[in-house]
Design a protein that fits this description.
The protein is α/β, with parallel strands linked by helices and about 425 residues long. The protein contains 16 helices and 14 strands. It has helices at about 20-30, 40-45, 50-60, 75-80, 90-95, 95-105, 125-135, 150-160, 175-185, 200-210, 255-260, 335-350, 355-365, 365-385, 390-410, 415-420, and strands at about 10, 35, 65, 85-90, 110-115, 140, 165-170, 190, 235-240, 245-250, 265-270, 275, 285-295, 300-305. The strands form three sheets. It has an eight-stranded parallel beta sheet. Strand 7 (about 165-170), helix 9 (about 175-185) and strand 8 form a beta-alpha-beta unit. Helix 7 (about 125-135) runs parallel beside helix 8.
Length: about 425
């Protein structure tokens, strides 16, 4: 595919002091990927912060690039197993070039990014060629603010080295971002400014500059919808993961098109006779994940990431008043799995008590494998017993030890469900 037909990626960097919260924000606010550059790990000579990488990856739906503290293949493995989609090397590639090859051979070149600091490198084109030969799958080029000939160097690297390029900028100005993408034709741009940025606004400026970026586009015009007598269409708003119905409001053409443009739910207030973007006053924004229309084209279903409470009363949802109710069990089995898994992972990340979980991790992988094997055997034996209570207990015991194994090997329930989905 021609490079001009591929959507350019906007990649904000996370503030190390507030990484998880910033990751959640950019996950909702339109970023294509996010980058966690742990510069302190390299400076302090410590290992990568695998726990924070895992926490970030569990909180977002978009890919994470992890950089900092990489010295050996084991560091790359830990970061990727924690959920990072790619690992970025700078000092490691300079000091131990063979590590680039080892990591590329083991995990695939598409997961290995190498950084070239243009303020330090005397022969960036030659070094880029070397990195490609070693197995790098992508290049990150620093620092445009310190190198007057930055654009010329980037162009030369792109002309001579057939690798995807990430350029960098400290700017949060959409026109400046668009200009750099146009002048370099880079596949991605990393935004190093740590203040919260309006990614959708930056993308709109890129689109105006004829740069192909990933934006919401409606599959049909608003005129195709069936409106009520007031010229409005009702919108049912639902949490995109839990399925919880949060609220019902109305949209007109202007609010619908603003929702598409900004990625934040915007409605038409019938009482105030004006547009209102949910969250502008309270901070409780609704970030769009999807918009659907029903078969009669007279109701919109919005699936959103809800920040804070949806209801003006402070309730999570507007639907908190029961009119009639029959008692039922609404326990979500997958939620139970996630909660137990998170407890096990927290105990591994923060050992110190004398719990059985910490005992297992203290004994190591062989002890955990032994318990998993024993559990599987006990299930087989219990299955021959006509009393189903025994097998329920053994399955529960097995699943607990299986989750200990998953945590030990850096595998999450999200990883498992994705694999299962591929086998349907």
């Amino acid at each position: 595919m021609d490079n001009d037909m591929i959507c350019k990626k906007i990649i904000p960097c996370l503030d190390l002091n507030n990484a998880v919260e910033m990751a959640k924000y950019y996950n909702d606010a339109g970023a294509d990927e996010i980058a966690y550059f742990d510069s302190k790990a390299t400076k302090d000579g410590r290992e990568p912060n695998v726990a924070i990488i895992r926490q970030i990856c569990d909180s977002v739906d978009i890919p994470l690039i992890a950089c900092g503290g990489v010295r050996e293949l084991e560091d790359v493995k830990k970061l990727l197993y924690a959920g990072a989609s790619k690992v970025c090397m700078k000092s490691a590639a300079l000091n131990t070039p063979e590590l680039v090859t080892e990591a590329s051979d083991r995990f695939g070149s598409e997961r290995i990014i190498c950084t070239i600091d243009l303020s330090e490198c005397d022969d960036p084109v030659g070094y880029a060629r070397k990195l490609k030969a070693l197995g790098a799958g992508e290049l990150l080029l620093l620092h445009n603010n310190m190198v007057p000939e930055y654009l010329d160097i980037v162009k030369s690297i792109r002309e001579n080295v057939a690798l995807p390029v990430i350029v960098s900028t400290y700017s949060t100005n959409g026109e400046a971002v668009a200009e750099m993408l146009n002048e370099t034709n880079a596949e991605s741009i990393s935004l190093y400014n740590l203040q919260k940025m309006d990614i959708m606004e930056i993308k709109q400026r890129c689109r105006e500059a004829n740069i192909d970026v990933d934006l919401f586009e409606s599959s049909m015009p608003f005129e195709a919808f069936k409106l009520n007598s007031d010229g409005l269409i009702p919108c049912v708003t639902q949490h995109y993961k839990t399925g919880e119905v949060l609220m019902v409001a109305y949209m007109n053409k202007e609010s619908y098109e603003k929702t598409i443009r900004t990625g934040r739910m915007t409605y038409w207030s019938r009482s105030r006779n004006e547009l209102w973007t949910k969250g502008d006053t309270s901070g409780h924004y609704q970030f769009v994940k999807s918009l659907s229309i029903d078969c009669d084209k007279d109701t919109i279903l919005a699936k959103v990431s809800q920040i804070g409470a949806a209801c003006h009363t402070g309730s999570r949802t507007c639907f908190f008043t029961d009119l009639v109710r029959k008692e039922y069990n609404d326990t979500n089995p997958m939620k139970v799995f996630e909660e137990v898994y998170n407890t096990i992972r927290d105990r591994k990340d923060q050992p110190g008590d004398d719990s059985y979980t910490n005992y297992l991790f203290g004994k190591g992988i062989d002890k955990i494998l032994k318990k998993v094997g024993e559990g599987a055997t006990e299930i087989v034996i219990a299955a021959k017993n006509p009393d189903s209570e025994d097998i329920k207990y053994e399955i529960s015991d097995f699943l607990y030890h299986l989750m200990c194994l998953m945590v030990e090997r850096g595998i999450s329930w999200k990883d498992i469900t994705e694999e299962l989905a591929d086998r349907r």
